[in-house]
Design goal:
By secondary structure, the protein is an alpha+beta fold. The chain folds into 2 domains: about 120 residues, Aminotransferase class 4, branched-chain amino acid transferase, N-terminal domain (D-amino Acid Aminotransferase, Chain A, domain 1, 2-Layer Sandwich), CATH 3.30.470; about 160 residues, D-amino Acid Aminotransferase, subunit A, domain 2 (D-amino Acid Aminotransferase, Chain A, domain 2, Alpha-Beta Barrel). About 30% of the residues lie in helices and about 30% in strands. The chain is built from 8 helices and 15 strands. Strands 7, 8, 9, 10, 11, 12, 13, 14 and 15 form a 9-stranded mixed sheet that branches. A 6-stranded antiparallel sheet has the order 2-1-6-5-3-4. α6 crosses α8. The two termini are about 25 Å apart. The structure holds pyridoxal-5'-phosphate.
């Protein structure tokens, strides 16, 4: 078993894969990405990830026909070759290499990179005890539905929250509207209803979030989009976040104020278990 890279059609050890210092992904953050997990060799929700990849590519005018390039076949091949039982695939597509100029040049080919690594272990205490979040001003751009690699606000917010002893930061607008955490979608539970911010341009449309709607149905919960104010968040029965990496994670406090009892609630726990059962079956 070994960690692997894929760069423009060629597999290699990660340390051997090199890209140019004139790559626009490096110079401008002119690139998009996906993180996809494979459980037991099977890529989870691959079609949903590829559909989001397509919309990110379209949104930044990056013309790359990944079907013609055999991208999903290469992804499966990487998962097979690295031999880890559960694999984290990181995929990044940059505009390509060109002399530095803001204008998008004609005729360049994208740089297509993948890495294949074991799925990072999540501390079991985190799922047992829940996460503490800190609010952070929404400083990101207006197109967070694009899974772009320009993540500096997320990097700063998460790092500052971590340094201050929190698990993550949650972006809140000047008007008090809760958006999402630096790397996960957020939800409030009100009785049997699970509310999450509208899937408009201001948040990433999570693949985990979409998959969770089936889990919610099975648990007799209704899922609805809505505006989540900070007051609504603090009045919720439960709060949780979701992403490919942490699946479903209960939030027990925000800015040191406990959510209800400050314990992991039954709906967050139930959804986590239901999600894991379905994702691995
Ligand atoms: C800002 C943000 N929101 C939400 C998500 C959750 O998306 P997904 O469930 O597709 O992993 C992520 C995942 O990286 C993210 O970075």
């Amino acid at each position: 078993m070994s960690e692997l890279a894929y760069l423009n059609g060629v597999f290699s050890p990660i340390g051997d894969a090199k890209i140019s210092i004139e790559d626009r992904g490096f110079q401008f953050g002119d690139s998009i990405y996906e993180v996809i997990f494979a459980y037991g060799g099977k890529l989870f929700e691959l079609d949903a990830h590829l559909s989001r990849l397509r919309s990110s590519l379209d949104a930044i005018d990056l013309h790359y026909d990944f079907d013609a390039d055999g991208l999903s076949g290469a992804m499966r091949e990487g998962v097979r070759r690295c031999e880890f039982p559960d694999v984290m695939v990181y995929l990044q597509i940059t505009r390509g290499v060109a002399p530095r100029n803001h204008t998008i040049p004609d005729g360049i080919s994208p740089t297509v990179v993948m890495t294949f690594k074991p799925i990072p272990l999540v501390d079991p205490d985190l799922h047992a005890n829940g996460a503490k979040l800190k609010t952070f001003p929404e400083t990101r751009w207006a197109n967070c539905y694009i899974k772009a690699t320009t993540l500096l606000p997320n990097v700063l917010a998460k790092s500052r929250a971590k340094k201050a002893g929190y698990y993550d930061a949650v972006f809140v607008t000047e008007e008090g509207e809760v958006r999402e955490s630096t790397s996960a979608n957020i939800y409030v539970v009100e009785g049997k209803s699970v509310v999450f911010p509208r899937r408009d341009k201001s948040v990433l449309h999570g693949v985990t979030q979409r998959f969770l709607s089936g889990c919610m149905d099975a648990m007799g919960l209704t899922a609805e989009e809505g505006l989540i104010s900070l007051d609504r968040l603090f009045a919720a029965d439960e709060v949780f976040i979701s992403s490919t990496a942490i699946e479903v994670l209960a939030v027990t406090s925000v800015d040191d104020k406990p959510i209800l009892s400050g314990q992991v609630g039954p709906i967050s726990r139930g959804l986590y278990e239901e999600f894991r059962r379905r994702a691995r079956s």
